[in-house]
Write a structure and sequence with these properties.
Radius of gyration: 24 Å
Shape: elongated
Length: 62
């Protein structure tokens, strides 16, 4: 039990040293990440559609 208490105290001490981002920075980062994810999803979808068309042409699919 003493080890658990000691561990939790150390965790708390380390968390007081952390510099947390402000709300504005978090919102800005979230928007940027969402935008990049959407761009990557569109790119992967287009590549998938293109490769699918090429394979259908090569293999003579429907």
């Amino acid at each position: 039990m003493n080890k658990i208490t000691s561990f939790l105290k150390e965790v708390y001490q380390e968390l007081t040293k952390v510099t947390w981002l402000g709300r504005k920075d978090v919102v800005r980062s979230t928007i940027a990440v969402s935008f990049v994810v959407i761009l990557v999803a569109i790119y992967v979808s287009l590549v998938d559609i293109g490769l699918n068309a090429i394979l259908k042409t090569i293999l003579g699919g429907r």
